[in-house]
Design a protein that fits this description.
about 350 residues; TIM Barrel; 8-stranded parallel β-sheet; two-stranded antiparallel ribbon; 10 strands; about 15% strand
């Protein structure tokens, strides 16, 4: 598949003529440092009908201060005994990322990754990415945002844990460089209780920023995600896993393969429900319209040569005759035939 065909996945977020929602499968760290598991997760995303397979790239030595990186961390002993060891276990090198990108694009998915620092941004540029993702906790990393914005590549940025004023500054940086930007409403609670979803914020973002808006969800299930689509989200992002009981950071709040299939199915159905926003009478409605709309009907016997007055007419089903909207084209007309009582009026009855 050509790169242009693959890149349409994120590009359509920025095309207002497109109504299809971009579904991002956030593989993130759920590959557990295993290249084959990462490829399997790409396949899960493909089978479910997602558009994008997304990963995360960090330069571990610059992730935190040394005392944090080297602190004992017993959460995931199979990955390492310190925070640094755990993080390094979860990182792929450039050759491995090239394999993953080729695998995703071979499936017709766009490859996307979150850049957590400038070094990782350069790494992903060397990889040949066409777009970037910025995580919520990088929204206040202004040098990183400026660096990414200067590439002018389409960027999707989550907004969890941030104030509106901080988002204003971040958006301003991308506008300064005329860089395409999509904002994702996100609640950084893992998992997010339904009552904290605050989906009405989507409308506020649309009004405040006049940008494409999406949703990055961390809830159990996917009802808020589909709700976000109903409220105008142009893209959605959800963590995926093959097994929620697996060791690792995000498995418990992720969607398993069957759940992912169900969510994508519901999103595509919601797209059909939402339609185009253009008012028209469908073919199905036309049948019902002809049956139940009203038309002019004679209230009495009307002689040939009579002048039609309002008292001679009423409105009844079916809607296959003359509509009340054409009243001025009926009143004052002379009949050329006699019209029985309770008969649909048509223009062939007039001189």
């Amino acid at each position: 598949m050509s790169s242009n065909a693959v890149r349409k996945s994120v590009d359509k977020i920025f095309d207002s003529s497109q109504f299809s929602v971009c579904v991002i499968a956030e593989i993130g760290l759920n590959h557990n440092g295993d290249l084959e598991l990462a490829k399997k997760l790409i396949d899960v995303a493909w089978l479910a009908g997602c558009d994008v397979a997304k990963f995360q790239k960090r330069d571990v030595k610059n992730l935190a201060v040394g005392s944090v990186l080297d602190a004992v961390d017993g959460r995931f002993p199979a990955f390492g005994g310190t925070y640094r060891e755990i993080r390094e276990h979860l990182e792929f090198d450039l050759g491995q990322y090239r394999e993953l990108k080729a695998h995703a694009e071979g499936r017709g998915l766009q490859f996307l990754a979150t850049a957590f620092d400038i070094e990782s941004t350069d790494f992903l540029l060397d990889l040949g990415v066409s777009s970037f993702k910025v995580a919520s906790h990088s929204l206040t990393n202004l040098p990183l945002l400026d660096y990414i914005a200067r590439t002018k590549k389409p960027t999707i940025m989550s907004t969890g844990m941030c104030t509106l004023q901080e988002i204003d500054v971040a958006v301003g940086l991308f506008r300064k460089h005329d860089a395409p930007l999509c904002l994702l409403h996100c609640v950084s609670a893992y998992p997010t209780p339904y009552e904290q979803s605050n989906l009405r914020l989507l409308a506020h973002y649309m009004e405040r920023y006049s940008l494409p808006i999406g949703y990055s969800g961390h809830e159990i299930g996917w009802l808020p995600t589909v709700g976000a689509v109903a409220l105008g989200a142009r893209c959605v992002e959800r963590h995926i896993t093959t097994d929620k009981t697996m060791m690792g950071f995000d498995h418990k709040l992720s969607l398993n393969p069957d759940e992912l299939i169900g969510m994508v199915r519901d999103i595509r159905q919601m797209e059909q429900i939402l339609g185009t926003g253009q008012k028209s009478v469908s073919d199905t409605e036309s049948i019902t319209r002809q049956k139940y709309h009203v038309s002019y009907v004679s209230t009495r016997l009307i002689a040939s040569g009579a002048t039609i007055t309002e008292e001679m007419l009423t409105l009844k089903n079916p809607g296959t005759g003359i509509s009340a909207h054409l009243k001025d084209k009926v009143l004052g007309r002379r009949t050329k035939v006699a019209i029985d009582k309770d008969v649909l009026i048509n223009f062939d009855m007039f001189e």
